[in-house]
Amino acid sequence: MSTSPADPHLPTVHLRPPRNWINDPNGLVFHDGHYHVFFQYNPHGPQHANMHWGHYRSPDLITWEPLPVALTPTPGGHDADGCYSGNAVSEGNRMVAFYSAHRNDRWWQPITTAESSDNGRTWAKRPHLLIPEPPAGTTMYRDPYVWRQDERWRMLVGSALDDGRAAAQLYESDDLEHWTYRGPFHTSDAATGTGPIGWECPQYATFGGQGVLILSDWTPQGGPSHTSVIIGQEKDGRFTAATALVPLDHGPDFYAPALLKAPGEDRWLMWGWAWEARDDAWAHEAGWAGVLTLPREVSLTADGTVAQRPARELLALRGPRVLYGTGHVSRTEPVELGQVSHTFDLTATLVPDTTGTSGLRLITSTDGSEYLDISLDPTAGRLAVDRTHASPDTRARGGAYTAPCPAAARLHTPVELRVIVDRSIAEVYLADEQVLTLRFYPSTDGPWRLQARTTGTGRSEFAVAAWNLTPQDIRQEAEPAPR
Ligand code: FRU
To answer: What's the DSSP call for residue 414?
Structure first.
């Protein structure tokens, strides 16, 4: 029932088809008793081109069923060169998808729609564009996000303005068909020349009276792209920020996340796109690129922080516990904790020594030369994930990345870590709050092992448990898409 793909880097519990290119999660919606996850998909190769919407569904966030490709570019149509990102809503027995219609001869993507009455197996595109023109003064425009609020439908569209600001544009509708432009919901401050020049994939969730707005930076000059989040209140179609924009994920390989409101619960789920941290030639050789993150629960803490943790359902992926270790470590000798498979879930409680950094090393080669370091620096108040020695192939990117510790973790007090590794992706959660996602490409097929380590002169305490995760049978190719 389970599959373990031969490519040692192809994840086994994260969603993606066995081959070819994927990017953004799209159209996340609960419909007909299933979570539906669509995604940007090129069924013809491992590069960004000719985007379709691939499709998976799950009754429980654990078992996933690939469904036929949902949206395919129509030759000669508005979306002839790509069905770009958007979302979907469940309305009676229909699923209605909103997406960005891409043509190579047009610099912006008008909003269009398609609907399905058979739970997403077949889709009928409406012939006309829903929003044929962006508002005046817009220089980039795409990625509709539709939600229901106060008995009306709302839509945000990512954009850039000709004065250099990034914006999320707001529309409203009573029937999903006729949309009225309400103006910019939120814009960046006046252009500084350093910030993003546009926002892609805006997403919006509410928690009581608070709104959480997620924005992915569009930096076409090849600058670093990342995703930020801001908390505030909406009134009369305008969002007033109560906080600064802060990174949503502190890792280098996370972008364009999308939200899904769990049915009948006050719970928001989120998937992101983890892109490759290796060069295009290698991705081409491997025949695939990109993976969706695991589903995360997004919440707002009492002190107004956007917190993330793995969806609680993921505990069901755990097999028997393979490792448990508790004790202390000093700088003279790391403590061997034991072996894990290449797809595992780990919890650690660390009481770091304040004179140095303390944490875990995942060793992925027999000689110990390849490793990923996850450590806490209690004095600086930082979590660091260092992949400098994690990928022996020089075509992979290295570097160390940090996330701020929540206030409580800065002292000499226990810090909770949760780490989920799936072959070439690591999602590192700090205190069920901050998260850092990165990709790495170990060379070996041998056993992996974990160590507790410290650089401090005192003692660091730890309690670590790990479970191997059961590979999921999600590798069937989606039904071939027509060319
Ligand atoms: C974000 C994005 C979207 C666009 C899609 C195209 O990664 O650039 O703005 O709709 O990807 O694949």
So the answer is: -
Cα 100 to averaged position of ligand 1 atoms, centre (Å): 9
**Distance of CA 23 from the midpoint of ligand 1 (Å):** 8
Of 32-41, 190-199, 272-281, 395-404, minimum mean pLDDT range: 190-199
- As a CATH number, domain 314-469 is 2.60.120.560
Domain with CATH 2.60.120.560 in the chain: 314-469
Q: What is the pLDDT of residues 331-342, one digit of tens each?
A: 999 999 999 999
Gyration radius of the chain over CA positions: 22
Q: What is the CATH number of domain 20-313?
A: 2.115.10.20
Q: What is the pLDDT of residues 377-406, one digit of tens each?
A: 988 889 999 999 999 999 999 999 999 986
Residues having CB closer than 6 A to ligand 1 are 23-24, 40, 51, 84-85, 100, 142-143, 200-201, 255-256
Name which residue sits closest to atom 1 of ligand 1, judged by CA: 256
Q: Best substitution site from 22, 40, 99, 169 to test ligand 1's pocket, by max atoms within 8 Å of Cβ? A: 40
Least Cα distance to 362 among 249, 464, 254 occurs for: 464
Distance CA 360, CA 370 (A): 14
